[in-house]
Task: structure prediction
Amino acid sequence: MRLAIKRRASSGQRPGPDGERAWDMEKARPQWGNPLQFVFACISYAVGLGNVWRFPYLCQMYGGGSFLVPYVIMLIVEGMPLLYLELAVGQRMRQGSIGAWRTISPYLSGVGVASVVVSFFLSMYYNVINAWGFWYLFHSFQDPLPWSVCPLNGNRTGYDEECEKASSTQYFWYRKTLNISPSIQENGGVQWEPALCLTLAWLVVYLCILRGTESTGKMEQLANPKAWINAATQIFFSLGLGFGSLIAFASYNEPSNNCQKHAIIVSIINSSTSIFASIVTFSIYGFKATFNYENCLNKVILLLTNSFDLEDGFLTANNLEEVKDYLASTYPSKYSDVFPHIRNCSLESELNTAVQGTGLAFIVYTEAIKNMEVSQLWSVLYFFMLLMLGMGSMLGNTAAILTPLTDSKVISSYLPKEAISGLVCLINCAIGMVFTMEAGNYWFDIFNDYAATLSLLLIVLVETIAVCYVYGLKRFESDLQAMTGRSLNWYWKAMWAFVSPVLIISLFVFYLSDYILTGTLQYQAWDATQGQLVTKDYPPHALAVIGLLVASSTMCIPLVALGTFIRNRLKRGGSSPVA
Amino acid sequence: MLWLLLFLVTAIHAELCHPDAENAFKVRLSIRTALGDKAYVWDTDEEYLFRAMVAFSMRKVPNRETTEISHVLLCNVTQRVSFWFVVTDPSKNHTLPAAEVQSAIRMNRNRINSAFFLDDHTLEFLKIPSTLAPPPDASVPVWIIVFGVIFCIVVVAIALLVLSGIRQRRRNNKGPLGVEDAEDKCENIITIENGIPCDPLDTKGGLINDGFLTEDERLTPL
Result:
């Protein structure tokens, strides 16, 4: 007996010219080699520079160990549920962010577009940090380290003036690395050295994503209501929600993958890394504070010894106070002349200086490293670690952009995967040259502060509401059950439907009101004559760019919904019912 | 008479050398900071050595080759150790210009420092800036070399991956073409006979189904 069975092509992808082909065009989706690769990709994406330079700062500002309480609570209430939601959506829809949201509801594909736009902004400026990491890494192979000594001035009688007023590490960062201009208006030209490093950073990213996202798994942001808000924000950004990267990663999973377990694992590892990084950072703070305190004391001792011609070695840290009193009483006029120059050295004030962001990574850490033994080794290790963290997050970002592009049949039929990746990297690199100009660091700060913050909150809010109320929580629950074989815990349902949206709305309202109430936005500019940062107002064109950044991603959602609505209306009006 | 002479000499000495005098320089030594336990005591012999070193430096200046140790006057030695010095001309009436003394000291700073086992920081001449040693400058900055190495590695790796991708795609395009010609002849329905799919059995095309025995073998030949 003959049984004729139409065989479905399991790996056919030949768009043949003749229409007789009855092969089903279901293109097979590349998959992770094993679930561990997926977990590693998510971890390397989530664990980024924010764990190293933002979380320790927040801990220090909001009471140290007690910050962990709001942090852990927000992790359980907001971070894990939202992470699980994104992974589940990606695994269920098996498409990148645009396709996934289009499947949920055609009116909501704007959410996917907004995610891609935000990821695009992020990848534009994030790789500049990797470029700086490369710069410092290459400069670590010198003895002495270039940021440990000041260069000499013109006639070699002393050190460069700007370096004297600031410190050698600050000078190396602001002058040698950034060559920063005094304000955002003075643009200057593109600096060739950071431009070269940025090109190299993009080449490395291209190398890793060349073959598609499945290769990234092999590589390896987060009392006092402010403390709670910052904990919520930190968890939110530390996990990288809303960029579409998690959806992209999860879309390459097998449908039966247990993404609930993975969501919990990734969020726990992300938070443990943050906590571990803060332990290290605090010890660096302590080292630096002790060193600076002792330096300060020595300077005071030298000043007093020289002014009063005391015996060399007589003044020590122990008898400093008594001798000061003695001198004040014995030589009152001379002491009052010297007094303004005597700094009050205090270990507490040194410990209280908290820095975050690029200031922490490139100034404070390098200052601590230059005082250690074998500083070249520590420097190389540290910047290598920064590069690993930065590259991991960067690959997740580019995956968020590339997956929707390669999913789209229009684009992927014209260009192979390598060409799409190359084009994306090239465009981002070209735009990223803006950040290598003299005023580039100011533009970087603009992007860092405004490109992703409000838009992400809105995107994740719409995502949660879309899944729970538009797609239907019951429908999603049954989908997940069919897919993974496990029923959905009531805890997740409660979080998705009620708690997380409420939290995000309150965060959103808080930040919006904060921006409105603050009035004009200001920024920190480096003043070379004083050797320190000064506050300035943003000029109008910078404010316009900020507005454009926020609007271009948030407006995607309503605009695409409107566009789909109009298109449907036209189609319905155009097509006449067949008699 | 001798007393008068001594008195006169001391008076002149005090006139020419006193703190903030014209053409006078203050010197500051930090012996204990530099040498720790091996610090020596600053006494008149050390002062003599110092005066000798200054006189030596002045002798290197053109027109001042006749400077003697006695022309160098020291005063106001403190516990610190710090003191003032001037260099007088042979007549001992007035002091040599500060610019000359400054340039002489700057030229021979290294010799003076090493005579006392000190360096520019621990033996300070106030108002005489020392020439700092520039950091060793390689002809090609080190970072460019490291950058070049990493850059070349990455570019080569990208080129290899891209080329292998192109080669693989070309192989994929050629491979299915062979199968396509064969399958053009049969319909797009694959027959499964007795549980054996025919496709892997048939590579030549046509409708020959090896699942069945051929006629010749089955029937006894006539």
